[in-house]
Each structure stands twice: as structure tokens, then as C-alpha cells.
Design goal:
Number of strands of chain A: 4
Shape of chain A: globular
CATH architecture of chain A: 2-Layer Sandwich
Strand order of the largest sheet of chain B: 1-8-7-3-4-5-6-2
Strand order of the largest sheet of chain A: 1-4-2-3
CATH topology of chain A: Histidine-containing Protein, Chain: A
Radius of gyration of chain B: 28 Å
Shape of chain B: globular
Largest sheet of chain B: 8 strands, mixed
Helix content of chain A: 25-40%
Oligomer: heterodimer
Number of helices of chain B: 26
CATH topology of the largest domain in chain B: TIM Barrel
Largest sheet of chain A: 4 strands, antiparallel
Largest interface: A-B, 23 and 30 residues
Order of helices and strands of chain A: EHEEHEH
CATH class of the largest domain in chain B: Alpha Beta
Helix content of chain B: 40-55%
Distance between the termini of chain B: 47 Å
CATH superfamily of the largest domain in chain B: Phosphoenolpyruvate-binding domains
Structural class of chain A: alpha+beta
CATH superfamily of chain A: HPr-like
Strand content of chain A: 25-35%
Strand content of chain B: 5-15%
Number of domains of chain A: 1
Chain lengths: ~90, ~600
Amino acid sequence: MIVVKAFTITNELGIHARSAAMIVEVSNRYRAEICLEKDGIRVNAKSILGILTLGCPKGSIVIVRAEGVDAEAAVEELGRLIENKFGEY
Amino acid sequence: MPENRSNKTMVLKGIGVSPGIAFGKAYVLDYTIANIPYYKLKDEAQAWEEITRFEKALRDSRRQLAAIKKELSDREGVEPLFIIDAHIMMLRDKKLIYNTINNIKEKRINAEWAMKLTIDRYREIFDKIEDEYLKARFSDVEYVGQRIIRNLIGRDPIRLSDVGEGAIIISRDLSPADTVQMKMENILGFATDIGGKTSHTAIVARSIGIPAVVGLERITREISSNDTVIVDGCDGFVIINPDPEVLRRYGEKKRHYEILEERLLREAKQRALTADGHRIEIGANIEFVEEIPTAVMHGAEGIGLYRTEFIYINKEQLPTEEEHFSIYRRVIEGKGIYWSTIRTFDLGGDKFMSDPRLAKEMNPVMGLRAIRFCLKEVELFKVQLRAILRASAYGKTRVLFPMISSLDEIRRVKTIFDEVREDLVRRNIPVGEDIEIGIMIEVPSAVVIADSLAREVDFFSIGTNDLIQYTLAIDRINERVTYLYDPLHPAILRLIKMVVEAAHRAGIRVAMCGEMAGEPVYTLILLGFGLDELSMNSLAIPRVKKIVREATIEESRALLDSILDLPTAEEIKKRVQDYMIRRFPDEFSGLRD
């Protein structure tokens, strides 16, 4: 199963070291292959450096793409994380 | 050459950002690794050896970081622990590992160089990121990379928690990731190549009360670890390998400084009560929460001016209400202070946001700034007001509006303020019961109509810096006219008199928070005016308090009366200085010709 969904980054600092680490932690809990995509560049959501090199400031649109048995749950949880601003402001 | 260098006395001049004098052993904090070994591998077997070595270095690095994390979590006040988690995660990053192993296999090079190439590649990628903050995250990659390379070379990793007693930290700059790991009780001073009064190094040094000199440009190149070094944070000097004579002289300077500090600090906690029993409140001007302990130590009773501009200009994004709130709450709850005066945004709109509509102004000090900007961008203003009101539930709060020039302005401000308050009350969000509203008196028109302004507010605070600039029509930044800037200009003294009289007739308090308030030679005149509060740089408080305690209100009034009739600033200055030198010979010996 492939699930694709777009999210807007809304926390003030964008995806920085801490928020990237949170994405990796969540992604690692799923068996699905998960990617983040921005401006046509795709990185592995289980790689903190990959996520950081995307450079996602506040307001940028990130596409989460998951493939695998638990893809739907993975995208849902990652979406919640992004929408909750990674627990920041 | 190194031999030569190790003995030579050398003096470097920088900016003293935290006062005091420290002697110690240099600890040079340097993350760059000179001479990374490079060699070609003979065959595949050797490549496998290198890969094994690389994997061991990764494991060692992870273990070290886990140990640092454990050590830090045993201590208090270590918020940025997450940064270490992120670093550990980077050490597990498949891309980073794969990339380096690939370099070893395909380019047939040693592990150190393969790792260096990986770091270089990430540098290129991060360089392309537009967002400045996210671009700077490359420093995390570099930090992790240097640790791996150090482990490969067999060089000891940098363990800041191991820095021994009596160390002076020498670095290009210091970041929170560095300072969080240091045991501050072991560290006597900081000296850095770059930075200014507001850099992290300066703030940390002031908050823990150790001397620091920044902006030395080349100290990391001139010094080696374990060199003897003197940091003179009073005058901004750093002396490397001082000879015995210099050491002796500085020993004396240090002793004098400490005796003076101790004496002043001992007395600083006493109240500012004149010899004939007149009380004046003493506040501190601050811009960072971290400055509060120093302010209290130097005898501040409250915060007379909290400048909020840094909340905005240190940021790439607009600060949120929560962010404002948590900072104001920390100020208001500050240990040892009884009241906090928070001044709302006092800069031009260009500092607020990069909006092309906010065109560069020809004359920004008279432009769309401070309260004018806030009244134009009401929604932004409300965010700050809501945060101040919410924070006021946690302690005595005074809110201060800058650059008021007409009655209409303060009325509009109050309407907005009341709206915000009522909205919070309606939503059952606690706000302070006794919050006071005040205005800065810094525009001459406000002085002229001070009587009607006084009926609208609970207090005035005279901002002498701007009042002088606007009254005497001097651009303080223009060096060709700064000679005209004079707080003792008869016009300025008369304006201050008008403000105090108007305030007291209306039964409200009047403070002064400009630089004039912290200059001890003016203390008697200010007492003579009848000001209720003086707020100043923390370091100025002990001397000003000392003069207040030795003076009488009667002599202060007499001195003021005797100068108000003098026609020129020159004559006034002479009269005041002569009096102060005669009256307080120990304090003002330096003013004698």
C-alpha cells in the first residue's frame, strides 16, 4: 500500500535538529518505507541528515510518502507530529 | 617558532563584556582538526580494515555521547540535552555511514579522509539551504564528524566536562552546546576571537559572574592550551604568558578590583536612603533574563527597564505569544526583584519583519517606530500586550510605552490595552490586579503636555538619551555633532524639572532610566529634582547607591537651585563637578584636572 499526503510546516523554527530527530524516531517504529519530499527532492524519513538537508523552514510544504503494510498509520502519525508543531510553538 | 611563542608575553585587545580579572591556564577549544592523515590503500583487504576502523570509531563516538548525556542529565538546568540525542542519531545515520564506507571502497582512501569527504559533501548541501537558521545546522554535522575523526586518529575527544579547575576557555566562539557541558565552577574566564556584548559568551559570563573578553580576532592562533593567561574583562585585555612584572601588576589590579567590588557589593544591598531619610527606588536596565542575578547582586530592587527588542531581533520568525509570555514571566518572577517594568517594542518596523513595504527611512529616529509602529500594526502589538498581561499575574508589573508624543497616542494605547485585558478576563485567564501603566518621556512635546499626560497614566519614566537627542537636535550617531550632546544643557535640566513637577502635582511617580541616571556625578542633582526612581546599568548601581546614602536631600536641592540659574552647560558642569569632588573626594578623584 502506498499513502501520500502533503503537510505545511508550521512551527517557528522549521524542521531543525530536534524536530528532525522526532520524525526519525516515529518513522523507525514503522516497517513501511517512508520518504519526505520537498521541491522535487526526496529523502529517507529514517535519516536525520537527509531530513535536515531538505531545509524545511516554517511555511514550506512537505510531502510524506509511505509504502508498506503500515503505511497509512505511519503517515497519520507523522502528520499529527507536524501539525502539532513537534510540541513547539 | 613554537618554542619562541611559548615564552613570549603577548597582549591582545578585545571588548570586555563581563568585568573582573582572572588568572588561569588556557584551555583552547578547537573543533577543527589540523593535519587529517591521508593515504591511498593498497588493496581490498586494507579497505576492509579501514571500514572496521571506521565502524569502531562510530561505536566509540556513540558511547562517548551517551556518557556525556548521562552525566549531564544528572545535573540540573540542562535543557539542550536533545541536541546530544540528535548527534547520536547522526552517528547512526545510514547515509552518512554508507557514504563514508563507499569513499573508502571506491576511492581507496583511509577512513579519516573518507569521513572528511563526507563532511565536505554535507557542507556543500547545507550551503544551498536558504533559511539561515537551518543552514547553520551544518555545525551539528561538523561537530559529529570531528568526533569520529578524532576517534580514528586516536586523539582524545574533546570532553568539556573534564576541563579542570582554574581554566580560562579560549575559543573562536562559544555555543550553548559547549557551555552546557562545562562545569562552570571550574572556569575562571572566557576569551574568544569573535562576538560582542550580546553574544552567548558574554551573556553566560555575566550571568555566572566571570570575566570575559570577546572580539580578540586571533587569540586562538596566538595561544596554546596550558599557557598562562590573564583575562581583564574590565578593560578588554588578554595577556598571554605574562612576565613576572606584568603578573605582579595585574595581581595588584585584581586585588584592588576585588576589594572595591566586595565593599560596593556588601553595601549594595542596603536601601537607597539619604542621610536625612529620603527614599529613592533603584532599578536595573536589562535586556536578558540572565542579567537578573547580577542586577540583584549589585543592589537592584526591581527592573526599571526591560528592553524587549531582543525578543524580536534575535529571531528569523516573529516571536509567538507563548514565547513572549515565558520570557516576561521569568523576568517578573525573577529572584530578588520586587517589580518589573517591561517596555513595549521600541524600534523601527524594519527590525520587526522584512516587509518591502517598510521602506528604508531617511531619518529613522523620527520615523515609523516604537509606539507609532505598534499603533499601526495593532495585531502584533496585541500579542505583546497579551503576553505582558498574562505574565503580570506572577508578580508586580509595570508596563512602559515608548515614544509617546501626544495625548491621543496614549489614549489609543490604553483602549487597546483595556480591550486585551478584558478579553483575557472574559476567558478566565489570570492577569495582575495591580499592573501599572506608564510612558517614556523622551519627546519634547511630551514634556510640554506632561500635565495632561500625567492624568492618563500611573508613572513616567524619563528617557534622557532620546530626550537630549530630540531637544538639542543632535543625531547621536553623527560624530560631527556629538560634541553638542550634553545632559547638563540648561534646557534639559529645565525639562526634567517640568516633568517631575507635573508628575507630582498629579500624584504619580516619576522615574529616570536614561544613561544620566547611572552617572554618579549627576546623582545629587537627580535627588534634588525629587525623582522617585533611578534605573540604570546594574554595574553602576553600587556607586550611585553609595552617594545617595551619604547625601542629604537638603544639600541636593541647594545644589540644583544653584545651577538652574546658570546660563551655560559649561558653567553648570564646573559647579557640579567642583561640588562633587569636594563632597566625595574618594569617588571623584579621577575628575580633577
